[in-house]
Amino acid sequence: MKDTDFNYEHINSMEPSFRKDHIEIDDFISSVSKNKFFISFGLNNLKSNESDGVYALRTCGWKFHISINDKEPNNIKEGWNLVKDILIEHRVYNSKVVPQGKVMEEQVIDDEPIGVQRGKQITIYAFYQPEKDWAPILQEITKALANNHIEPSYRAPGDREVKGSNYITYRCDGIYNDKKGNCPFPRGVPWTDYSNEIGEDPFKDISVDVDNQPDIPDWEEPTLYNGCCKVM
What we know:
The protein has helices at 8-12, 73-89, 135-147, 195-198; strands at residues 22-25, 28-32, 39-43, 62-66, 94-97, 122-125, 160-161, 168-172, 223-225, 228-230. The chain has 232 residues and is an alpha+beta fold. It has one domain: Phosphothreonine lyase fold (2-Layer Sandwich), CATH 3.30.2430.10. The strands form 2 sheets. Strands 1-2-3-5-6-4-8-7 form an 8-stranded antiparallel beta sheet, with helices on one face. The longest helix has 17 residues, at 73-89.
């Protein structure tokens, strides 16, 4: 597989559809959501059986967020191009990345406050592969981003930190209990608020050791002006 096959420019050229306009190479596939809110990427579940039997439409469970400054187009482009090579190498089953022009801190879903989606530029759905050793993958991702001077964005609210990484956090949106893929807990709520229902944290002992990481920016709550919100 050529390293340009799933690069950021290539996957951003797709139009929103469900596997009508998509990129499919070997065991991997990428497509764009209908509203172009995200670009999905991962193993093709029609060709691969590496999800440990997890229902294909499931969208909640343990996941990692990779925070990359998406205000600078080249930063998110270069960040994704580094991360996707690691995802391919380790055959990570499912992930997604924000498309060009989407600044996550400005995105609002339903009635949630502005800023709730910050720090979620790349999502890795770990629950598809619960037996995978994630520690070396997170180490590689953090090292690749830091060594290439990729700027992190804000921490994702409600997430726990992967110790030692200025880029990666994680959370659980609840135990999967709905065949439609619905999550039982709301966005933006710290998973510790319902930890009795999701069980022990499987990633609490993971840490990475990478020098010279860029600093994490501090989040400031939006201020109101003329009845509208602005992130300062």
